[in-house]
Amino acid sequence: MRVLKQILAVAAVSLVGNRAVVAVQGNPWLALAIGMATAVAAVLAYEWVVRRTEGRSVTELARDGAGARIVRGMVIGLALFAAVIANIAFMGGYHVHGSGSMSGMVGLFGFMATAAVTEELLFRGLLFRLVEERLGTWLSLLLSGMLFGLMHLLNPDASLWGATAIAIQAGFMLAACYAATRNLWVPIGLHFGWNFAAAGIFGVVVSGNGESKGLLDATTSGPTLLSGGDFGPEGSLYAVAAGLVLTAVFLWQAHRRGRIVPRRRAVGAPAASVTVS
């Protein structure tokens, strides 16, 4: 019941906010405002329901240092996706046809902010964290990553391979990021930086959601395993490889910092303690 209340509180804000952003896509500044407002509302809803149901301070969303952590995650996400595009371009699969739409980029900023915040709160803040308390870091990472990938099967140009790629490169990577940092700001920033780089800057399809009108007017072509096909570059082997490398780095950091939670062997055994950086 506790978990259901938490999920419903954040999901309700996410659903209303996402629909509102989509409804005003023709007005980029309104989309930006609604997107940012939804992100803030989702954070407040998460904090409220966690305090109410768990009776603790919400350390994973601590305000101290939040800005720097978001920026750190954004830089990682932007750089990682730029590396993916560079590899696809090197193989002749990414084509820039000219400048895109500045207003479109503004609207995408709000849309991607909403998506990054709400998805990280639901999948890493709730699902991964709560499952980890019982099953440990490894199984929680596997299960939450798979569910994150399956969710993307609902997208218009989704494919089983695309959902699998998302599970590996994003579901695993973002869970590992949370395990290493024990806060949600870095994975939120990373998630946003990756998505905004894809749609808002490089103008490519994001997770099978159709064409994006970002800073550049661009398309991809070539074999699906190299370009991602209709699903977008996230369905390419370059994106999967990049996500796997970063997953390994984050898990190494989590291990070095003593933040890998073991599977709970006995009912009532205390959960492993972790610290927040």
TrEMBL record:
GO terms of biological process kind: CAAX-box protein maturation; proteolysis
Domain CAAX prenyl protease 2/Lysostaphin resistance protein A-like: 106-196
GO terms of molecular function: endopeptidase activity
Membrane spanning residue stretches: 29-49, 70-90, 102-123, 135-154, 160-181, 188-206, 235-254
Domain of life: Bacteria
Keywords assigned by UniProt, alphabetized: Hydrolase, Membrane, Protease, Transmembrane, Transmembrane helix
Keyword Transmembrane tagged: yes
Pfam families (alphabetical): Rce1-like
Protein name: CAAX amino protease
